[in-house]
Amino acid sequence: MSEKKDKAKKKDKEVKDQVEEVLDNAIDEVDENGENKEEQPEGKENELTQEERLKEDLQKEKDKFLRLFAEFENYKRRTSKERLELFKTANQEVMTAMLPILDDFDRALNELKKSGDENLLKGIELIHNKLKETLKAKGLERMNVEQGEDFDSEIHEAITQVPAPSDDLKGKIVDVVEPGYKLGERIIRFPKVVTGK
């Protein structure tokens, strides 16, 4: 991460140096042209032409400077946007890696409820809730998908179709095999469902 910061600082410095160099060249050129004008006595027409030429040169240098400055501003905006995207992506990878652990916790809780050991169940529930709340604080949100909802291919992943147990479940979700999760507004894992046909 620090290497990227160093590279970004280096690029910023290079662009700043280019801007300063263009300005210095423009100032030097104006100074040289001004000295030449004093050294060479010319007629009024030549002085006006010389003055107009200097104004044109100065205008060209101003344009170069403004373009370079605008390019630098765009560069700053682009790098800050890329940096934010990098943070989001890094967070997404960690969250995606944690999802199977959450699934394992859910399975373990279901099995412990069947065993009837209340103390063990309570301890595992505390750890499970702490993990869920920590991930929720970082932006992870479980998608609520229930039996009987309409199947939407944009937000659900159908793993199989089974004959609908009743007519009202045709084309709808019959069972949720694996829950889906969102990170902010983005779905990082689609819920895996069984649909009725």
TrEMBL record:
Keywords: Chaperone, Cytoplasm, Stress response. GO terms for biological process: protein folding. Residues 1-19, 34-56 have a biased composition (Basic and acidic residues). CDD domains: GrpE. Residues 1-56 are annotated as: Disordered. It comes from the Bacteria. Pfam families: GrpE. GO terms for molecular function: adenyl-nucleotide exchange factor activity; protein homodimerization activity; protein-folding chaperone binding; unfolded protein binding. Gene3D superfamilies: 3.90.20.20, Head domain of nucleotide exchange factor GrpE (2.30.22.10). Belongs to the GrpE family. This is Protein GrpE. It comes from Christiangramia crocea. The gene is grpE.
